[in-house]
Each structure stands twice: as structure tokens, then as C-alpha cells.
Amino acid sequence: MLLYKNLLKELDENLLEEKSLKEVEKFGLSGVKKLTAYSIAIPLISIGLFQIYSFTLSHKWYIFVIGLIFLAIGLKHLKNLLVYGIRIYTESGRIKSGKLDIMVKDVEEATLKEMKIGKKVLPILKLLTNEKRQFIIILLMSNQVRFLNVIKILLKDKFKIEK
């Protein structure tokens, strides 16, 4: 992930042309985020499975419950990791990610800015639609500059950068 100043600098340097856009642009998690998520999910799943296995040996119900809790948390974490992704359909002008489904023509304004999320300050893209609904996309993807360039091309003068 890039720092905000470096992100703005690279965004100015690496401009895309409309011809170079693919029909469907896909953006997934960055490698560091994937590694971190896997290093949390896999141990939780293995601890949960071990606890459930221990229940078969000792027949104590609380061990089974603890195992189920660990297994459920690990599987939910793994599901979130595997499902994360943002797709931009450039021809139809649609941004899709999980439950988020926005048509580009409905976007009134898009602002790139920094926001404090927890203890970290991360770059975000704030989308405001014609119905005054606000969507915040945290830039956790591997290719942030390309993502922002695609959004910039699709939204043209509606895209703003807050410094």
C-alpha cells in the first residue's frame, strides 16, 4: 500500500488512456493484506479443528463449543478474504463489490482523500450518488493507482482529489 502523498504522485505520473481499459477491471487485496488474513484464518481453523478432535477423546462438551467458536471465526475470516474484490465494468459503467452495485451515471461526486480508520490513516474513495447515498471504498487493493485511474476516466470531471 502506498502512502497518500506517494499515491497522489504516482496517480499524476501514471495516466491511463481510455483505449487501454479492459472490459472488466478486477481488483483484489494486496499481497500483504492476504498474507496477514491467511496467517489469522488458518491458525483459527486449525485450533478449532483440534478442539473438536479433542472432544472426541475427552467427551467434554465445553471443548466442543470452544472448537466450534474458533472454527466459525476462522471460516468467516477466510470467507471474507476470498470474497473481497472490486470489479469495474467499463463498458456498462458499473462498479460492483459484494453488496455494493453502483452505476457510474448515478455518481454525483467521487472524492479521493485520507481518513482515519481505527489507528491507521488510509486512502479512501468516497462516492456520493444522486440519491444522496454515500459509499466509502477503502483502498486495500493491490493496484491502487490503476483503480483510481479507471475511476478517473469513467467519472471525468466528477472525480476530485482532496489534499
Structural overview:
15% of the residues are buried. The two termini are 18 Å apart. This protein has helices spanning 4-13, 31-58, 61-83, 144-155; strands at 24-27, 86-89, 94-97, 100-103, 107-117, 120-129, 134-138, 159-161. Helices cover 45% and strands 28% of the residues. The model has no long low-confidence stretch (mean pLDDT 85). The chain is elongated, with a radius of gyration of 20 Å. It folds into 2 domains: 4-28 and 91-157, Roll (PH-domain like); 33-82. The strands form 2 sheets. Strands 1-2-3-4 form a 4-stranded antiparallel sheet, covered by helices on one side. A 4-stranded mixed sheet has the order 7-6-5-8. β3 (94-97) and β4 form a beta hairpin. It contains 4 helices and 8 strands. It has 163 residues and is α+β, with helices and mostly antiparallel strands. α2 packs antiparallel against α3.
